[in-house]
Design a protein that fits this description.
The protein is α/β, with parallel strands linked by helices. The chain folds into two domains: about 120 residues, Response regulator (Rossmann fold); about 70 residues, Arc Repressor Mutant, subunit A. The protein has a five-stranded parallel beta sheet with strand order 2-1-3-4-5, sandwiched between helices. The protein is elongated and about 75 Å long.
């Protein structure tokens, strides 16, 4: 799926102008007249960003940003407005907006913000996919393999782990070898790195 840019602005002329500009650089664009229309749209699983007008009838841009955040929908947002002020900008940026552009802005200024946002979303999606793959591999480990790996990652030697678990050192070595194979780890540092990534994620409960 190609990268996609969503445009939400209640002004038809603005939507058409922005859509034309975005298409001119080879990007796919979907435009909406209101925040409600955007929320009802079934968004494809692709790198994306949102070009969002601040002031609109009904649900405004900042309110839409809050709703997306509360729903756990992570998408880079570029705010555009003809009535921006410093408090509004600060509020938007603190809530995670990538940029805040006041009309009139240069086409290149918006395009640079869009490409930056798409690169950011692509990177985040890639990291999520990698983490999901690591989690999937970890889930295939037996409970004993997880116990062994947890101790090894803490810095214990095979003999110490064996004593801790009440099993033989040979058994620890077998579990360690099997776990590394299942995780796709070619070395102990690689395995430690994988486990630490899971610990830093929301899946940290797996190790407690």
């Amino acid at each position: 799926m190609k990268k996609i840019v969503f445009v939400v602005d209640d002004d038809l002329s603005v939507r058409e102008a922005l859509s034309s500009l975005i298409r001119s650089v080879g990007l796919h664009v979907e435009a909406f007249a209101s925040a409600k229309e955007f929320l009802l749209f079934r968004r494809p699983d692709a790198a994306a960003c949102l070009v969002l007008d601040v002031r609109m009838p009904g649900l405004g841009g900042l309110e839409l940003q809050r709703e997306l955040s509360q729903a756990g929908i992570l998408i880079p947002i570029i705010f555009i407005t003809g009535h921006g002020d410093i408090p509004m900008t600060v509020r938007a940026m603190k809530a995670g907006a990538v940029d805040f552009l006041s009309k009139p802005f240069r086409d290149q200024e918006l395009l640079e913000a869009i490409f930056h946002s798409l690169e950011q979303d692509s990177a985040v999606r890639h990291q999520r996919a990698e983490l999901a793959e690591i989690q999937d591999r970890f889930d295939r480990l037996t409970s004993r393999e997880r116990e062994v790996i947890a101790l090894i990652v803490r810095g214990m030697r095979n003999k110490q782990a064996a004593t801790e678990l009440g099993i033989t050192e040979v058994t620890v070595k077998v579990h360690r070898h099997n776990a590394m194979e299942k995780m796709g780890a070619s070395s102990l540092p690689t395995l430690i790195g994988m486990v630490n990534r899971l610990r830093l994620s929301d899946d940290a409960s797996n190790f407690t």
